[in-house]
Amino acid sequence: MVDLRDHEGEVAAALGRLGRRVEFADVLAERATGAGLRLDTQSTTPSVEPRLQGTVFRIWNGARWVEAATSAFDAASLAVAVEALEHAAGKASSHAPAPGPSSTTRKEWRTESARPMRDVPVEELLALARDARGWAMAVPSVAEAQVGIRWEDDERLYLNTAGARCFQRLSRTQAGIFVLATESGRAEFDFDGRGGVGGREILEFLTEERAATVARRAKEMLAAGAPPTGEMTVLLDPSVTGLFAHESFGHGTEADQFVRDRSYLQPILGENVGPEFLTIVDDGAFPGGWGSIYCDDEGNPGQKTVLVDRGRFVGALHDRETAAALHAAPTGNTRRADFLSRPFVRMTNTYVEPGDWSLEELVAEAKNGVLLERGTSGIEDPLGGQMQLKVKRGHRIENGKITGLVSSMALSGKVLSFMKAIRGAGRSGPLRIEPGFCGKGQTDLLPVGTGGVHLLSTAVVGPA
Amino acid sequence: MTGSSPLPDAAFRVADRLRAPEPWEVYAERSRRFEIHLGGRSIEMVRGPIALEGYGIRVLRAREGKTGSGFQASTDFSDPGIRSTVADAESVSRYSEFPAKRVELPGASGKALHTVEIVDQRLWDDPLRAVEGYVEELLRGFDGRKGVVPSFGSVRATLSETSLANSAGLKVSYLNTTVDFEVAVKAFGGPEGAPPGEYWVNSTSRRLETDRLSTDIDAWCRYAKDVRRAAPPPTGNLPVVLPPGVLAGILPPVLGYRFTGVARLRKMAPVLGDPVAADSVTVQDDGLRPWSPASSPVDAEGNPRAGRPLVTAGAVAGLLYDAMHAAAFEVETTSSASRGMGPEGFTDWRRFTHPPRVSTSTLSVAPGRGGTEAELIEQAGDGIWVQQLGWASPDSISGAFGGEIRIGYRIRHGKLAEPIRGGTVGGFVLAPPGRPSLLRDVAAVGAKVELFDTIVTPPLLVRPLVVAGAAAPPAPTSK
């Protein structure tokens, strides 16, 4: 198969059959291709993305959404899925209108790159990875260096019975370097990575200087002290701020949690939640952002949605159903992990916009506390409003100066208390979106971007 | 349990048409998935069948004392589709290098497969009705309860026919079911004006466990209510009791890396005989544990599953190998290849899309002499019981773990006392000699084991772990 659209005829015919039985139906067909490689001191492991393709149909049966999917495009397989939905439609009032506005967008998008990754020979990627590994391994005490490069072309074709037709080919490229240093039985690591919508240009960050820096930092970690514990002044670096914006705050703005009466933020929409210099957005149209999408899986274009505007909580993220329930408009945030997964309201690129403090000013203002660096993971608590963020490393702040290096930490506390206590936001150069993957609960992982600036507040620091 | 599907097993259909030099291997699955998603007490979405049939082909190519391994997966069962999948795998193998001279794949043994309970027959026979029945039972469990509701949840049942064939003549197949369950229980209302509280449950099993729903719902509701009146824990080094649900998020990701040939290859594995845990700790990897989501009659390369000792009376007793790593060290495979199990414990139900990798299956911690939960609490004296962590997010390299306490209980004078929430608890699962670690600081091992996801373990009393609570004053900021 050359193009997903080669199967558009069969898919559209199956959708048309459903359209004769129900008021609204839609379909998403998907095909993903790609490749990657991982190189360390012991092995070279190239890979290719699975040749996965398939279709998921959805109907509104008058009471709820019903879906069926198949990993084949032949008429018989599509018919099995359609018949299952016809059966489901027969049980209820299938001519009731589906909630919310149906997209009527008709458009095609493709990621443009001077060098799409599909045109880059594997030999070139191997050479780059070997160089990067070599640069890192040249630093004493380094026991292992791993370099990973991966790209994917994800084609999605969305059709619905209201006339929408959206085709997108989204190309994502990601690379990272991970360095392990060991000494006297202790092992520590550091890492750096980039990812975004684009091609070979994203790999330009893999330079000798960067690889050596990661290696030196891994080595430094061998001498890192234990982190402080307890409630204290904390200064988040941009990667940790991005994690905060996504995990701690952003999940509470997904309006499906409002409809389920499961968001600590719902009752305070419109209220002040932070200082006037605090602005948080979700931007599916962020150029080159790892979590960017051209259109969501209900046919609505990706867009910028302001969540917190100068300290006031003003916006939530919507699909068609939550928009209908809460008298809002869809925000282009309906996403499926793939054609096998259900759609949810999901974030895209979520970040804190710059303030006007320099790093030196923030450290001086902190006086005593801890600087948290290299965010690694976080978990949401949409109803309880607690936060948990984990970082790989940090530095103590003593008497207004950055001092000793400390190892991994976890940050906890109440999100709203943390936001109210924000005392400064850094100014930044160009905003960098960090690549990550997010689940809704424990499953349905998909690409999301996070970013931000240095943020000064108060929280509980503990072991991690 | 050998499959009896009306169509020939998917791997055999591919293998019979495969034209490739030896050695090669085909792993295939024909799966149907049925899901019900809840929004409050209402059904938000019904999904199914989600039909997925696919296969993964691995080729192994010896080259200059090393092995090139190539893998590709596909859902295209046509002859051209199989040819292009093999071509992809061959192409990948040309650039792949692994330090093993010759990798052996298992042949046909002629022996019957192990019998292991991994099929929920009622689910297999009528999947949508079985899932609907389970959800009805779940919702009925909340009838008549005041101030407690499910706010969000899903039941996702997968029915798979797994098959494997290789160039050494192996042909095996088996049926299996998997149930991913998630529910958030919300407590609200009442005169006290406290904000709502939630207890969020995630689990993976081989069956719809209707029999225990009523007991489970009682406990979930109690925890959700206790969240509302919980206070932050104290700060300090405290005795901590960790139940199976918490240990499931800590031990498998770390031991599943450090006790394998992958870690040994990178000089990260412990040495046989090394003391890594308290004498009371004995752990094995049990590939045949009934109803575990990681159990199967054969591993992902077709070797019969078995029990493998990892830690005996605190000392390292064994490491785990798949075919590649066994060949690298010239040892026997321990039938420890799996597919779709991520290093952080996430699993992908599309297992055929992954090449085999060595991992633990079900970690089995032997029961000890610590007695009942009440006796463990009594031994803790003054400490905490952690019922649930946000996410322990264990680091398999350094062995560090730590997470926010979603709900726990203070232990005072050897008795459970008030609920706690917030703050973090953490430490290291494994650590170099002379440094504290969770396994080394196990003070007592409970007497009763429970299966939770991919671990079967009693609760462990660990003395001490570092607890950081919001109520405490800031720690000194000097080193």
User: Low-confidence parts of chain B, pLDDT < 50 over ≥5 residues?
Assistant: 1-5, 472-479
Strand residue content of chain B: 35-45%
Helical content band of chain B: 10-25%
**Largest sheet, strands/sense/barrel of chain B:** 6 strands, antiparallel
* C-alpha termini separation of chain B: 59 Å
End-to-end Cα distance of chain A, whole Å, is 47 Å
Radius of gyration of chain B: 24 Å
Number of helices of chain A: 9
Largest sheet of chain A: 8 strands, mixed
Principal-axis shape of chain A equals globular
Q: Outline of chain B, from the CA principal axes? A: globular
What's the β-strand tally of chain B?
A: 21
The order of strands across the largest sheet of chain B is: 3-2-1-4-5-6
Helicity of chain A, in percent?
Answer: 10-25%
Enumerate the spans of chain A where pLDDT stays under 50 for 5 or more consecutive residues.
none
Which oligomerization state do the chains in this entry correspond to?
heterodimer
What average pLDDT do the residues of chain B reach?
93
Calculate the mean pLDDT score of chain A and round it.
94
Verbal overview:
- The termini of chain A are far apart.
- In chain A, the strands form four sheets. In chain A, strands 1, 2, 3, 4, 5, 6, 7 and 8 form an eight-stranded mixed sheet that branches. A six-stranded mixed sheet of chain A has the order 12-11-10-15-22-21. Chain A has a five-stranded mixed barrel with strand order 9-16-17-19-23.
- In chain A, α1 runs parallel beside α2 and α3 (122-137) packs across α4 (208-221).
- By secondary structure, chain A is an alpha+beta fold.
- Chain A is globular and about 70 Å long.
- Chain A is 20% helix and 39% strand.
- Chain A has helices at residues 8-19, 75-90, 122-137, 208-221, 238-249, 255-259, 320-325, 359-366, 415-420; strands at residues 25-39, 44-48, 52-60, 65-70, 106-110, 142-160, 165-183, 186-197, 230-236, 280-283, 304-309, 312-313, 334-335, 344-345, 349-352, 369-379, 386-398, 401-406, 409-414, 424-425, 434-440, 443-451, 455-463.
- In chain B, 19% of the residues lie in helices and 35% in strands.
- The model of chain B is unreliable at 1-5 and 472-479 (pLDDT under 50).
- In chain B, a hairpin with a 2-residue loop joins β2 (42-63) and β3 (66-74).
- In chain B, the strands form four sheets. In chain B, strands 3-2-1-4-5-6 form a six-stranded antiparallel sheet. In chain B, strands 10-9-8-13-20-19 form a six-stranded mixed sheet. Chain B has a five-stranded mixed barrel with strand order 7-14-15-17-21.
- Chain B is globular, with a radius of gyration of 24 Å.
- Chain B has ten helices and 21 strands.
- Chain B is α+β, with helices and mostly antiparallel strands and 479 residues long.
- Chain B has helices spanning 10-15, 79-95, 121-125, 127-140, 213-228, 244-247, 251-258, 261-265, 323-329, 373-380; strands spanning 24-39, 42-63, 66-74, 148-166, 171-187, 197-205, 236-242, 283-286, 307-312, 315-316, 337-338, 357-358, 363-365, 383-389, 400-412, 415-420, 424-428, 442-445, 450-452, 455-457, 460-468.
- The chains are: A alpha+beta (464), B alpha+beta (479).
